[in-house]
Amino acid sequence: MLKQREQFTSRLGFVLAAAGSAVGLGNIWGFPTNTANGGGAAFVLIYLVLAFTLAYPALMAELTIGRHTRANIVTALQGLSPRPGVRLTGRLVGSYGILVASLILCFYSLVAGWMAANLASSGAALAGLDRPAAWLARDGVPRNLLFAGLFSLITAGVVSEGVKHGIERWSSRLMPTLVALLVALIGYVLTRDGAIAGLTVYLLPDFARISSTLVISALGQAFFSLSLGVGTMLVYGSYIREGDSLPATGAIVTLVDIGVAFLAGLLIIPAMFAGRELGVEIYANGQLQAGPDLIFRVLPALFDSMGPLGNGVATAFFALMTIAALTSSISMLEVPVALATETTSLNRKTAAWLVGGIIFAGTATIAVFFDPLFGAVVTLTTEFSQPLLGIALCLFAGWAFNRNALLEEIRAGNPGAQKTLFWKVWPTYVRYFCPLLIATVFVQAIFL
Ligand code: TRP
Prior knowledge:
- It is a single chain.
- The protein has a two-stranded antiparallel ribbon with strand order 1-2.
- It is globular.
- The chain has 448 residues and is mostly helical.
- The chain has a single domain (11-447), classed as Hydantoin permease, CATH 1.10.4160.
- It is built from 18 helices and two strands.
- The site of tryptophan has 16 residues, from helix 1, helix 2, helix 5, helix 10 and helix 14.
């Protein structure tokens, strides 16, 4: 009674879904501020090098394992090799990936809820409802629970519809909208006074700022941005059709992710400097504001100072953030939901609502006990667990995967594969260099 496993309907469908996963708050919020504080184009350069030398190979490890095993991360890693030790390790690593994906979603939904609340606030202001608008813009536990809850409901709703009718359909609608909003906002912001000063800070390299901490933050940024380590890309890879070439498809997703991050920099940094022109304080302790203050104080102050147009611009901006977060959160929820549907008798609908509910309980806990929990969960998941899991996944692709099967998988949908550089370099690279390099950066980050 094996059910037919769902697949993306086309390569474009996969690219939009995977790019939807990759493009998120990490791109629009994290990347621009990391760049501005990390020496502008010098950071961008390091980021590009790391994205292609470490993140892309790790992405390929997930995509090949996923498509080869056609399963969630636990079943996939466990099934790569018949050796009992490898099976057990696969099970443990996979389960840890599921846990980390779920924990990331816990805090991510909360942040997405802030965006959705601000979207509602600027929408209300646009409609002239000033009092609700003010309440919605003010940080508070009831507001956060309400909007994180709404956001979680939408996320679970999309995932419950399945790969084609939920994930692919919504990614295909939302990703073009996101790019259109982003481009329109950039066009508007660049006409504001002061914006060009922002462009210089963003784009002129300051090589004096390069340091090992900078390299580490660029690596973390790259792994977070490409959704690596926790089985998101693995499970999306498991829905790619046999006829699509993996190396090329993975490269497109990487390029789109980097491209959107770069574009977001053209919006955020000039917007901050346009705000400074109007008297908004954009530096804190000599660094450009980067945390929640940037999104919820600096930018809103800018929108406020824009006059009647401000509410419209704010609405577009928070819609952009909410959309970016939604296509990412559905990819995170898919990780545990795929496990639940493939290893228990639950159907997709029940699994999506049940797992979504459990994760929302985690989100609510973080919302209520914000100070002790939020930073700790972010650090534990993104700084410690993601790189370690990234190493493990490269080792699985490099060592547990039978070499012939691995090569077959790369060749599927890619008949000329043997002649490519990828074919010659990647299998060895992912075996030795990638894990070693990630480990080196990681050890430096933690111990030095
Ligand atoms: N990549 C997304 C962003 O940039 C977030 C994301 C989605 C993610 N799935 C993930 C991060 C899995 C880590 C792991 O915002």
